[in-house]
Amino acid sequence: MNEAEPIEPSTDPIGAALAHLVSKQDATGSWKGDYGGPLFLLPIFVATARTVAYAIDPETRAGMESYLRAHQNQDGGWGLHVEGASHVFTTALSYVALRFLDADAADPALARARAFLEAHGGPTASASWGKFVLAVLGLYDWRGLHPVPPELWLIPESLPFHPSRLWCHSRMVYLPMAYLYGRRATAPIDARLSAIRGELYAATAWETIDWRAARDSVSPTDRYVPRSRVARAAFRVLDIKERAAPAWLRRRALARVLAVIRAEDAATDFICLGPVNKLFNTLVWHFENPGGPELARHLARLPDYLWRAKDGVKMQGYNSSQLWDTAFAVQAIMATGRQETHRGALRAAHRFIEANQVRADVPDRRRAYRDRSLGGWPFSTLAHGWPISDCTAEGLKASILLAPLVAKPIPAERLTQAADLVLAMQNDDGGWATYEKTRGPAWLERLNPSDCFADIMIDPSYVECTSACLQALAAFRAGYPGARDEAIKKAISRGREFLLRAQRPDGSWEGSWGICFTYGAWFGTWGLRAAGLRAGHPAMERAASFLLGKQLEDGGWGETAESCRRRAYVHAETGQAVMTSWAILALAASGHGGDAAVKRGVAFLAKRQRADGSFPDEHIAGMFNKTCAIHYDNYLGIFPLWAMAVVPTAPAGRRP
Fold first, then answer.
1. Rounded-to-integer distance, Cα 158 and Cα 559, Å
2. Residue pLDDT, tens place only, 268-305
3. Verdict on whether the full-model pTM lies above 0.85
4. Helix (H) or strand (E) holding 477
5. Is there a contact between 100 and 126 (Cβ–Cβ < 8 Å)?
6. What are phi and psi of 179, to 5 degrees?
7. 34, 371, 390, 451: which is the annotated catalytic residue?
8. How open is the CA angle 411-637-414, to the nearest 5 degrees?
9. DSSP bridge partners of 628
10. E strands within 68-200?
């Protein structure tokens, strides 16, 4: 439906939204959608494909070019994400990608990109990850990078700065980086690369660049996390070590790094944890064993990360968000009380959720630096296999809800394994991190070398993960009493205290994986209710007061990605359906479901809803590492339905 067409409001908004959501279920029983948004991913995909001679078909190439052109900013640059201000990092890589996709250097879009780069310091002012990719391509000198030595993987694992202490996403990115850096792996310079090098460095001749000085040159556009004194000191130590490391030690270190890479590839069926380490692992095997079986397995999995949408072909932030979205869709449908009408869809969702529970630990997991996996659920699919605390929690919650509706519910033994995994993942501070218990000390964050991403060094406890785990444990205890009652009681008590400490004095919670304070409020309030707090508790009243103060004139709530960057509430120009839904859900949990403000919020949703039950596109709602927004395609189908369904059945004083 064209958004400009007049929209007749549905006489049954919940029914219309429910029908629309069910219509989006795919043949696997899951909800699979666009998980794009970060703009640095596709250029690295294109660069990797060219380096390893991976053929991209003409239609996909055209879609990639369309995507890059669609998201170029007016100033000629590209942002970290589709709604972000331009960065040198993404602009330099997007320029290279368009040239690899056969765009002419004289193209006006590329001319504007060159002008942006020249005005902001050129490629030598890129954030570190951009410099690294350019170095692999021969478009930046390795001398211009602070060392990423593979020998770090040989130091005693008991040391707090051993790479195994890092958050797994950073660990798995810097692992192949260490290999590529250790070998100074560089694509052969051909005519195209030579031409691009001349274009990127037209203002300053390549031969005259002070590469060592370029190590610390970062444009203000790219610098979100300043280099700390601790980081600068660490770089000096690593530089001395790099110049003194004997060849035999480098060979041993590269072999150790390659062994961990091999384990990651095998454990994830060559999908890898995330998109960047997927591409870097692919490059590793290209340089280690050109044309070998490992590279072939990687190439076969590259399409898993691509998604074709109306704005073109993009690389997603994961191989999918299927399990996450499906678990939420189930809960939204069940909240309507109309599950009998859609029993077939729910049964299909059950089959998907059941089939994608992790049934075994990773072989020799300690050698691969992996925690237990048995009983968990991943963000995407079983083939990917990395269980996450909140994904396990949402999978467990959905499975318990679905049990009465299916002929063969997931056995209690397997649900108990999920509960045991959640219990095992609780941190000492009472909260839950994402993939693993926190491994490293907080001060490791001061070594963050990325420039443009925050909170990447360790995996701390999060409001969202803690809330999801509390809700799941409470649901499991209610549905399967006696199995783990005492352990769950203690875990919930500790988790409740974490959420209370995490609440700001103004009543808000800062979200980390969504934008931002409406997201945090939903999880914070629902977590506390699951932990036993009543609707009128002072913490709940403070949360409600905060949200009520942020409602817009149109009746909705809305934030932009700047909320996460600034760590303060930044209003969108109008209400947003997803964020309004989070606010409504939080207010309902706080005992304010009958308030006039909530009724205005529900009216906002009903007015915004299209006749087919869908909602028009709006601001991006997902986020990671404070600076990079990411799109959850199914959120517009799930959360407005959930909010409209919960409010009528959540009178003051009752837990939704």
1. 42
2. 999 999 999 999 999 999 999 999 999 999 999 999 99
3. yes
4. helix 463-479
5. no
6. -65, -50
7. 390
8. 10
9. 624
10. 78-79, 86-87
